[in-house]
Structures are given as C-alpha cells and as structure tokens.
Amino acid sequence: MDVRMPGLTGPQATQRLRQAAPTCRVLMLTVSERDDDLFAAVKAGARGYLLKSVSAEELVAAIRRVRAAEAVIAPAMAVKLLDEFSAVASRGGAAAEALTGRETAVLRAVARGLSNKEIAAELVLSEHTVKTHLRHILDKLHLRSRAHAAAYAVEAGLVEGDAQTE
C-alpha cells in the first residue's frame, strides 16, 4: 500500500484494515522518505515500509518476510525510526514535565490503582473531567492505556513506593 493515495491515506487505510482484520499485515511501498509518513505508517500498524526504488527481488523477499510476521523497513528509514525512538525515550522526563498539576495528580492516583470515580472524589472533579485528564496524559506521554500510564508513573518516580499501598 502507498502512504499517499487519493481519498484515504495509506496509514488511515492500514488502521481501518487492522481494525477489521487484526491479523492482516500491511507493507507500505512508497516514494515518500518523509519522517512523518514513516511514523504514521508504523503507528497505524504497518509491518513494513519500503521505498519504490527497491528491486523486484527485494520486494518479493519483503512480502514473504511480512507474511511471516517479520518487520521490514528500508535501511535509510530504519535510521529515522531509531532516531525518533531514541528522542522520544530521552524526552520521557520532559514529557512528564509537560503535564499540568491536575494531570500529574490524576496520573499519581491512577498509579495508586484508584478508579475514575475514586479519583474524581479525591480530587473533587467530575468523572468526565478525570477521563479528559487521562486522555491528555496518554496523548502527552505517548502511552496507550491506563496500565501503561500507571507503569510510567512508577518508573518516572511520580509515586513513592508506599503510596501504592495507601
């Protein structure tokens, strides 16, 4: 699939395919060497990203590898992916600093195992506001779930060891 198509983009189509058929494996074949296209494709669930300059033999081999549940990334693009991953990892602390005071309080409460209702009562917020804060936390920290947020809070030292047993 190409990254840039009329109508849906490749990443949008990939995301829809993966939602409809989670075992479906997508290989992007594109001329785009743009970082944001690569990241969008990988984020959408693409198992491979090759440039259209690959030989027919390389393409066939890549299709076979993706079919075998392997990931295939053009070497020039792999470097970009690794650089971005490294940058995101090093920004971890900075990302936590980008949280508002309320978001940090919600994150700490999540790490302590409190439900949205319990967090709302403790912080004198509505459950809807707690959910909104949690969504912002996940977006800012590039996390996928409440469990990931709790693990992040512990790893980042936002929760003292005995706070989890309160």
Provide an overview of this structure.
This protein is mostly helical and about 170 residues long. The protein folds into two domains: about 10-90, Response regulator (Rossmann fold, 3-Layer(aba) Sandwich), CATH 3.40.50.2300; about 90-165, Arc Repressor Mutant, subunit A (Orthogonal Bundle). Helices cover about 60% and strands about 5% of the residues. Helix 3 (about 55-65) links the parallel strand 2 and strand 3 (about 70-75). The radius of gyration is 20 Å and the shape is elongated. The termini are far apart.
List the helices and strands and how they pair.
Layout: H1 10-20, E1 27-30, H2 35-44, E2 48-51, H3 56-67, E3 72-73, H4 75-90, H5 92-97, H6 101-111, H7 116-123, H8 127-141, H9 146-155
Parallel strand pairs: 1-2, 2-3
Salient structural properties:
2 domains, elongated, Arc Repressor Mutant, subunit A, 166 residues, three-stranded parallel β-sheet, Rossmann fold, mainly alpha
Classify the helix fraction into a percent range: 55-70%
Instruction: State the separation between the terminal residues, measured CA to CA.
Output: 51 Å
- Tell me the β content: 5-15%
What is the CATH fold-level name of the largest domain?
Rossmann fold
Number of separate structural domains? 2
Radius of gyration: 20 Å
Sheet/helix structural class: mainly alpha
Number of strands: 3
The side-by-side strand order for the widest beta sheet comes to: 1-2-3
Largest sheet: 3 strands, parallel
User: What is the general shape?
Assistant: elongated
Count the DSSP helices.
9
Mean pLDDT figure: 86
CATH class of the largest domain: Alpha Beta
CATH architecture of the largest domain: 3-Layer(aba) Sandwich
Q: List low-pLDDT spans.
A: 162-166
Oligomeric status of the shown chains? single chain
Look at the structure and name the CATH superfamily of the largest domain: Response regulator
The helix/strand order is HEHEHEHHHHHH
